[in-house]
Amino acid sequence: MHDIFRRTTKIKIPGSQKHQSFIINWQIVFYIVLIASLILAGFFILKMSNKKIIAQYDQEILQQQNQLKENYQKILEKSEKSNNKLILQGVELIDKNQIEFGCMALEEAIKRDTDIRDANIYAGYGFLRLAQKAKKQESKKTRKQEYLEKAKQYLEKALDIDPIHSLTYQLLASVYFELGDAELAQICYNKANELAY
Predict the structure, then answer these.
(1) What's the number of domains the chain is made of?
(2) Is 104 buried (19+), middle (13-18) or exposed (0-12) by CB count in 10 A?
(3) CA-CA distances (angstroms) from residue 197 to 123, 156, 183?
(4) Domain presence at residue 144
(5) Is this model's pTM higher than 0.90 or not?
(6) 22 or 123, which is more confident?
(7) Same domain, 35 and 115
(8) In a domain, 191, yes or no
(9) pLDDT grade, residue 57 (50/70/90)?
(10) Which of 144, 186, 189, 195 would give a disulfide with 173, using CB separation of 3.0 to 4.6 Å?
(11) Whole-angstrom distance, CA of residue 138 vs CA of residue 92
């Protein structure tokens, strides 16, 4: 009886004049390929389900963060803290890498009094850091652009208040550089160096 899965194959070994005969059990090869395919399919399904779980988890975290921001904004609006305390709170939060909350505190101080130089400088610095963080973490160009525009707005306001403050020019140079305007970045950097000495 002829077995369909058993074949004799003659293979010529390089450097030899002899032919070797091997019996290849195609049934075993078939099962090995089948098992390997099933294992790969299992890994693929597991990977896809993990991506869905991670996406759901990320969505939940984002919702919780947004809720936290809304609650913090309400607290800031009802707060009777002085502007100086709000500015200090904002700077501390930025230093602790809670940049968005720090910017929120600084913006509340600026809402109450727009002519506070340091609040504008630190808000500009905070939004610059958020833009740089967005660049590293995400490919959200619109979010990065939004942060850079806010940083520019606050730093330009700080220059209106105090046009000879070198740190403001340094930060503004960084903002212009991130925005892709090398010429304005160089002008601001030169002005910062000029004022520093």
Answers:
(1) 2
(2) buried
(3) 25, 22, 22
(4) yes
(5) no
(6) 123
(7) no
(8) yes
(9) confident
(10) 189
(11) 25
> Which residue, among 153, 109, 157, has the nearest Cα to 127 in the 3D structure?
153
Return the structure tokens found at 130.
């958020």
* Amino acid occupying residue 152: K
CB-hemisphere CA count at 13 Å for 190?
Answer: 6
CB atoms near residue 92 (< 10 Å) = 13
How far, in whole angstroms, is CA 37 from its chain's centroid?
Answer: 36
| Rounded-to-5 percentages of helix, strand, coil across the chain | 75, 5, 15
- Write the pLDDT tens digit of every residue in 89-105: 999 999 999 999 999 99
Domain extent, residue 4, equals: 1-55
Please report how the helices 117-137 and 99-112 are oriented relative to each other, as an axis angle in degrees rounded to 10: 150
* Alpha-carbon distance values, 33 to 36, 37, 45, 155, 177 (Å): 5, 6, 18, 64, 55
> Mean of the pLDDT values across residues 80-97?
93
